[in-house]
């Protein structure tokens, strides 16, 4: 059944989901540029699994999911960073280690508890229902902090994205910057899970950069277009999930992002063909 746009947007839970989604789309796109270009994009996937595991435990023991999950996910991001830099465990292996362990712990907690309830399933698959005012406030705060961080540390983020070793040799505190980014990524993943779901939250980090790289070559333009495409794709995906019966919001947003990526790929190929033809 198709509802009017006004009727959809007038509902409080849709407004809450809209705000959280837009804020996390913005934050995820900004943070995703550096992660994707550094080939560390799967850290978002690993942290989302850790987030699901901690949320499952929180729901089973009866504590607030976000209050329980956020510090543990941040701690996991630090451990992944430490293992990647200070041990023989490479980055992707460290991510896989925490990812599988968290899923195992989460699944065990659910099976040993009362089974999968709405709270757990909403964090796993994403849901328009149940987004609280607290999560709305947290999402706004996190998005503002991400934007401010990106503005003030833009040159440093640019530097460590393309040559972290050289940046460190110049005296730049690369470890501190990575720690700040790890905290922000963790917060984005945990808060965004409520709308996107743990299985699909990585889309907000990966897809925007992949799309923008098909057309733009400079770091600045990739960053700007990533933010724009991420927010627009989320809004379209949210509206589709609202007007099409039984279409999960997370799946809808991923579908829209994928279509955007394909369109950008085609545009990029056309621009490259025209450029090559002009040079000839």
**Largest sheet: number of strands, sense, barrel closure:** none
CATH architecture: Orthogonal Bundle
The strand count comes to: 0
Order of helices and strands: HHHHHHHHHHHHH
Domain module count: 1
Helix fraction bin: over 70%
Structure report:
The protein has 280 residues and is mainly α. It has a single domain (5-202), classed as ABC transporter involved in vitamin B12 uptake, BtuC, CATH 1.10.3470. Helices cover 81% and strands 0% of the residues. The protein has 13 helices and no strands. It has helices at residues 5-9, 12-37, 42-61, 65-86, 91-112, 118-125, 133-152, 154-162, 164-169, 174-196, 203-213, 219-243, 249-279. Helix 3 packs antiparallel against helix 6 (118-125), helix 4 (65-86) packs antiparallel against helix 5 (91-112) and helix 11 packs across helix 12. The chain is globular, with a radius of gyration of 19 Å. The model has no long low-confidence stretch (mean pLDDT 82).
State the gist of this model.
This protein has helices spanning 5-9, 12-37, 42-61, 65-86, 91-112, 118-125, 133-152, 154-162, 164-169, 174-196, 203-213, 219-243, 249-279. The chain has 280 residues and is mainly alpha-helical.
List the helices and strands and how they pair.
Layout: H1 5-9, H2 12-37, H3 42-61, H4 65-86, H5 91-112, H6 118-125, H7 133-152, H8 154-162, H9 164-169, H10 174-196, H11 203-213, H12 219-243, H13 249-279
Helix pairs in contact: 2-7, 2-10, 2-11, 2-12, 3-4, 3-5, 3-6, 3-10, 4-5, 4-10, 6-10, 7-10, 11-12, 11-13, 12-13
């Amino acid at each position: 059944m198709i509802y009017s746009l006004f009727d959809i947007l007038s509902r409080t839970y849709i407004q809450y989901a809209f705000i959280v989604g837009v804020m996390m789309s913005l934050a995820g796109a900004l943070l995703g540029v550096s992660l994707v270009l550094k080939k560390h994009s799967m850290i978002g996937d690993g942290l989302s699994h850790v987030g699901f595991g901690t949320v499952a435990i929180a729901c089973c023991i009866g504590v607030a999911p976000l209050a329980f999950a956020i510090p543990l996910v941040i701690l996991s991001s630090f451990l992944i960073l430490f293992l990647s830099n200070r041990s023989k465990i490479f980055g992707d292996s460290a991510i896989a280690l925490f990812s599988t362990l968290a899923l195992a712990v989460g699944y065990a907690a659910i099976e040993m508890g009362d089974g999968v309830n709405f709270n757990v399933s909403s964090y796993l698959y994403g849901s328009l229902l149940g987004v609280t005012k607290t999560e709305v406030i947290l999402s706004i705060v996190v998005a503002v902090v991400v934007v401010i961080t990106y503005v003030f540390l833009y040159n440093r983020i640019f530097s460590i994205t393309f040559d972290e070793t050289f940046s460190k040799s110049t005296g730049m505190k690369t470890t501190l910057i990575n720690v700040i980014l790890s905290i922000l990524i963790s917060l984005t993943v945990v808060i965004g899970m409520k709308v996107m779901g743990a299985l699909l939250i990585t889309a907000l980090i990966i897809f925007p950069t992949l799309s923008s790289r098909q057309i733009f070559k400079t770091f600045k333009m990739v960053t700007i277009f990533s933010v724009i495409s991420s927010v627009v794709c989320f809004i379209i995906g949210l509206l589709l999930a609202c007007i099409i019966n039984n279409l999960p919001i997370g799946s809808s947003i991923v579908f829209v992002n994928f279509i955007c990526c394909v369109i950008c790929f085609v545009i990029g190929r056309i621009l490259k063909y025209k450029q090559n033809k002009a040079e000839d």
